[in-house]
Write the structure tokens for this entry.
Amino acid sequence: MPKIKHIAMTAKDPHKVAAFYMELFGMEEVGRSGDSHVYLSDGEMNLTIRSCKAAGDADLGEGGAGFEGIHHIGFVVDDVAAFSDKALKAGAKMLSPAKAAVGAGTGGATPPGREGPSNAEVKISGPNGVVLDMSETGWIGN
């Protein structure tokens, strides 16, 4: 059964927002990707704080360029290709093609204890425009 394991939030100052979640909820920083992404975890779920999206990004989302807030929700599924087909049949819009790459979704780092591709993901939007991310192996910190 698919499980929610990832939430991505956009912010004008990702480091300030990440510090807030670490201080308030005791989340742990588990990775970074330059100045644009901070990866946090509570041990079960990945919370990615990333720079705001720009006009022209394939997965811009309903909030538009410069939007601050929850950008997308990530589900771990057992077969990205099968769920991509299922999503299209259910009326989803494909925002990015399925990909499998070492370090995808982890800021380029393969999480400890994982071998090979750490993430196979595809982004879609549902009927209300919310961006959804599907992965076979999850995100750093979960």
Q: What stands out?
A: The beta strands are 3-11, 28-33, 37-41, 46-51, 69-76, 93-101, 119-125, 131-135. The longest helix spans residues 14-25.
